[in-house]
Amino acid sequence: MIRGLAAVAVVLGHMRAFFMVDYAQTSHSLAIKGIYLLSGLHHQAVMVFFVLSGFLVGGSVVRQCRGGRFLWGPYLLRRLCRLWIVIVPALTLTVFWDVWGAQINPAAYTGLYHTQLASGPATDYDLSLSTGLGNIAFLQTILVPSFGSNGPLWSLANEFWYYILFPLAAPLALGGGSWRRRVAGALLATGVMIVLPREIVLLGIVWLFGVAAFVLVDHPALAGIMARGWAGLAGLAVLAAFLVYSRAYPGQFDDFIIGALFAATLPWLARGRTGFGWYRKAGFALSEMSYTLYLVHFPLLAWIYFVFFAPVQWAPSASSFAMLALILVGVLAYAGSIWWLFERNTPIVRRWIEQHLRFGAPATPPRSHAHREG
């Protein structure tokens, strides 16, 4: 549920940036403060994504390294299938919406509204083939900008390089393979970190908080303490308080504090009850499409605003919030259809590739082998 709500928080933040006036132009009433607070947590939601990624992906690497079962081939296949099966159609759809929008309002895609919105296409807007290929290779913010209007793609580069760096460095501490291979992996990871932009490397600490949370969950004694109800509720309360504080008084270490506080709640959340049936279904549905929603929502929002509303932004009112609700429903339906066409088929595509690359076991062993193995 948290993963799904984090994706929705990102969408809400971008919707507000496009369609609603800045907070300074509002009445500053308590209700408006609450609405603008909740719709302004999109960057913080990305930190939640990083922690969850470290917990789930980094945690699986920890478990496999400890058991001496980590293999680069199957690992990269799983990660790349997961990423590419959504990012390729997302880039294609970015071209579709951007080209169509630029035909109607070309100035919008060259940075005309960037200062007003503090978001959207800027002077580095680039829809070239080389930039598209660079984004497929996860080099956005490193060698190329994010593709077209799809600014949220920046975090995909972070995710991918954390997927590479952690398995390179982790065996040095966790074991697995010869000591020469472990030292070589750690040295290679160090070299990659030197080349990567400083911000990507530093935000890797937030990702590692998720790995630390997995280690706590995997440790019987520590997990028993961290999974107690009072500890989890206290962690959530402190996290919520800091989110409010960080919106009022932003600081340079906020990302790390938010990541650490959320990671501290994960042992409790991971061992908690799953909740009622409707809650499980809603959480599962939002979580399943969260990655697709994150990658495909922004070009559509930009197209809607630039084509129908720019440069007007709405003041808070019942009618403007109703319009936002309609747009949100449309974006969720759009992302759900893209998920249905592509992301939900990830396991099928991965199994097909495994069979052809021989990463997985053959579906049916030869008769003689089956007989000998009983």
Indicate the multimeric state.
single chain
**Mean pLDDT figure:** 90
Q: Provide the structure class.
A: mainly alpha
Q: Strand percentage, roughly? A: under 5%
Q: How would you sum up the major sheet? A: none
Estimated helix fraction: over 70%
Uncertain residue segments? 360-374
Q: Helix-strand pattern, N to C?
A: HHHHHHHHHHHHHHHHH
Number of domains: 1
Can you tell me the overall shape?
globular
- As a whole number of angstroms, the C-alpha radius of gyration is 22 Å
- Strands, count: 0
* Number of helical stretches of at least 4 residues: 17
Gap from first CA to last CA: 44 Å
Please describe what this structure looks like.
With 374 residues, the chain is an all-alpha fold. The chain has one domain (2-99, 200-373). It is built from 17 helices and no strands. α1 runs antiparallel to α3, α4 (72-104) packs across α16 (346-357) and α9 runs parallel beside α12.
Name the descriptors:
374 residues, mainly alpha, 17 helices, 0% strand, disordered C terminus
Concise synopsis of the structure shown:
By secondary structure, this protein is an all-alpha fold. The chain has 17 helices and no strands.
